[in-house]
User: Fold these one by one.
Assistant:
Number 1:
Amino acid sequence: MLSSVLRSSRAIQVNIEIMRAFVRLRQMLQANAELARKLAALEKKYDAQFKIVFDAIRQLMAPETKPKRRIGFRGE
């Protein structure tokens, strides 16, 4: 927000890079959704012998979930 309010050349460049990052993020999410649709179509086309392969690919496509750290005092 601040980079769009300031009028320096550096603030303008930062604002442009922020917009480019959001565009890349949107493209990556769209590509992942398209890949999931194609995988679902392939899964319908082939029989159960490839189920292991499709499950492995879905597992690789899933975002990593890291356990959240608890913040604050821990009384014992």
Number 2:
Amino acid sequence: MRTLHILGVTGVVLLSAMNVALADFMIFPAKGQSNETMEQDKFACYGWAKEQSGFDPMKTPTTSTPPPSQEKKSGGAVRGALGGAALGAIIGDSSKSARNAGAAGALIGGARQRSANNTTAQNTEQWKQQEASKYANNRNNYDRAYSACLEGKGYTVK
């Protein structure tokens, strides 16, 4: 833990958390800035970049939208069989017709249920990709702002 004096306010900063958030950058004090000045500038640029981008790399990532329903349903074959058997009994004149219609209904119901479950899985995967893309875009905007701030203060940032 290190105490920094920034803009007349003394505060305690957990540098280990800051270092994790800023670990992606190689920062060189191109104008001979001291380590203390560099730490102050990094902290100031962290705040500025966070304000400019609306992104805080030290916060736990969250999603911007709730995930789609994860509920996978079952029983499509049973419902299809019952519906088919009922239809076969109404239309046909024998129990054989009801059995055949019930078997067909079970196949159709099972296929519909698998299709619905596949759609749920596809929607979930698409949502995950969208959220990851939003996070990456927000992080990129933050990184650009942070780098611009440090470069404006006389550092080389890679």
